[in-house]
Amino acid sequence: MKFNQPQTLQQIASLIEAEFVGASNFSITGINEIHVVENGDIVFVDHPKYYDKALASNATTILINKEVACPEGKSLLISDDPFRDFNKITKHFNPFIASKSTISETAIIGEGTIIQPNVFIGDNVSIGKNCVIHPNVTIYSGSIIGNNVTIHANTVLGADAFYYKNRPEGYDKLLSGGRVVLKNNVDLGASCTIDRGVTGNTTIGEGTKIDNQVHIGHDTVIGKKCLIASQTGIAGCVVIEDEVTMWGQVGMASGITIGKGAVIQAQSGISKSLEGGKSYFGYPAEEVRTKLRELATIKRIVKDFNKK
To answer: Which is catalytic among the residues 134, 152, 215, 218?
Structure first.
């Protein structure tokens, strides 16, 4: 998430009431999670396991809960609770604003696009040309939709990320300040749910087709010309490369990558990254030939055991 204009280290430190290390006029241009940080961004870290990763990342300001040596060319914000203060920054620069109309006056809707009854379109949404948005679709603020996109009834774009910190008093939500981006020629079936990014974008690539009742988690990036069948669940921060096919009821863990041209058979469970150009099935999902050999071996063992 980029700020509308650069902020100084002193300004951010004052906002969250934190100490800082670095020049007071050190420039900060946005905030992001570790997997998408860029030069000028703040990243937060609150566990020793991830200190080194955060300090060595592309982020140039690290919001951290321990005084450490500041890497050259970077700055630090010292906080007793980086998670809380990251939320403060998100809320300050991207506050929730209640809608006053069903279709916002700030929404941009392209020529030839059809908006069916009972569609909600939030603030600063951009919809391209020749799209069809069917009844009861909800498009949260900031979403970006390309040309020739079809979205079927009851689909929701831009709900908050499912991201919580477990505290003694209950779960603390990480606020979402990102967006959903649909490229040109995307089709979404009925009752799909696509969460916005925490700080970046959840992106569906050009020409991808998604069936009914599919869920896509925050900050996931899906490539071009993918096919995703119904009731598939994709966790947050997943990368699905171009021309991947997923059949019904596939489920996958967060933070993994599915290589270009992979085919995932129905009801497979994916717990780790998979190479492209191969077919997979089962839980945990493995290449089809490997899985078939495993199943055949198990059947022989059971058959031999029953003969005894």
So the answer is: 218
